[in-house]
Amino acid sequence: MIRAAIFDGPGQPLRFECFSRPKLALGEALVRISLCTICGSDLHTFTGRRTGPSPCVLGHEPVGIIEELNGELFDVAGERLQSSDRVVWSVAVSCGRCFFCTHGLPQKCDSLRKYGHERVAPGQGPLGGLATHCHLFSGTAFVKVPSGLPDRVAAPAGCATATIAAAWRVALRSEGVSASIPATVVVIGLGMLGLTACAWAIANGHTVIACDRDDTRLAQAKRFGATYTTKPETLVEQAKTYTAGRGADLVLELSGSAMAAKLSLEVLRIGGTAVWVGAVSPTEPVSVLPEEMVRRCLTVTGIHNYTPTDLASAIAFLTDNHTRFPFAELVSHTFPLDAATAAFEFAERAHPVRVAILGE
Q: Would the pTM count as exceeding 0.90?
């Protein structure tokens, strides 16, 4: 039986609905969900802080086992997929042929569909992770999950970890940071994205200054390798202290705060790079002085979601580093699917980094 938790709108408990087994078109798959973590954007949709379609099946950080395939499907590495493979998959379904797909932005495909963001429709299985199964369309990027990587570590790869992989890829294209030269990296916002970013930078040999208002998150950042921790009001001063007065080479802004976006520019050295990631909901505007941007040779770029290659990089990073950093501990509580509403209510009340919902 295929069941899913249905989101009908903010302020309403999730209800449960049974689905007929979908008839797969060529290139499609049906995956049995093992576990899905609740992303911050899921929580924002559930509470109404951001708009989302309804009715829909939320959840875009799942991991699962392929149960059925129609045709030959391959993962990002080019290996053929088979029933019983454990996989994660891209949040975005892309055509591979449009302007954006052929210009390095498949997550902005002209015919984009996104798991966890699609209305329930007749003839389709659940299209989100808060279900026993997920119906996956042609154009979905798959990555196989190694046997030693726990579900609760692998699941966030489909959003948080892959987004950090994308942010790092974009940063390496700028003058602010090099893959071979140690850099000073400031990470603002120490949720799942921020803690992952700390570990990613440390694993690549860089110095990390982690910034957040919350003392608990600052302590967690230390466990994820952060060299220094600080609060926003002392960030600029601390960054100059640790860099002989120059400022940071790279800032990853992951909180979504307009104030933090402005702060990211203040903390950069001449020639530095800021990558803005966190602002996926409306914010206040940020004032920028064009002359300052020019004279300081600053680079500012945004990244939203990720490419299939980033998803593969995310799983590779977690495979290599999940025992070095306590990623499994970030999923503090696990709920059965029938308690999905309670999981969201707990996440809103207690503010854990992640909670997980079991598929069965």
A: yes
